[in-house]
Write a structure and sequence with these properties.
5-stranded mixed β-barrel, single chain, 128 residues, mainly beta
């Protein structure tokens, strides 16, 4: 067996932040970016460009509080984001758009996978 294939198979699954209950208000902000695994925390995040000054974008990892029932599972040998119905919602590298808004973790009762105090509370997710 290929050594790298074995390491991938034995690698720890990434974590994610999940809401305990559906949002009571449908926030309408839009977060667009790439579904990625933050290697420093092993958490599923949305990587998006953020501008700090004219012409100076840097990539920022945003911890998303996914809707209740969403998980990470192996699909075809690689980690995948799975929605509450068991359907594939995305894989690392997929471009996605998340509708929702930033919330304090204490206000929505979640523990951030990345350890951040604010997360993007997802209301709707689409692959772009």
């Amino acid at each position: 067996m290929d050594r790298d294939a074995k390491q991938s198979h034995d690698a720890e699954m990434p974590g994610l932040t999940v809401q305990h209950k559906a949002p009571t208000v449908a926030l309408q902000a839009r977060l667009a970016g790439t579904l990625e695994i933050d290697t420093s925390t092993n958490c599923l995040v949305v990587r998006t460009p953020m501008g700090t000054r004219a012409g100076t974008d840097s990539l920022v990892d945003i911890d998303v509080a996914w809707p209740p029932g969403w998980t990470v599972a192996l699909r075809d040998g690689s980690p995948a984001l799975i929605d509450a119905t068991g359907q594939l919602a995305g894989r690392p590298g997929d471009e996605i758009a998340v509708t929702g808004g930033f919330e304090n973790t204490t206000d929505i009762g979640v523990i951030s996978c990345t350890g951040k105090e604010r997360v993007f509370e997802a209301y709707k997710v689409t692959r772009t």
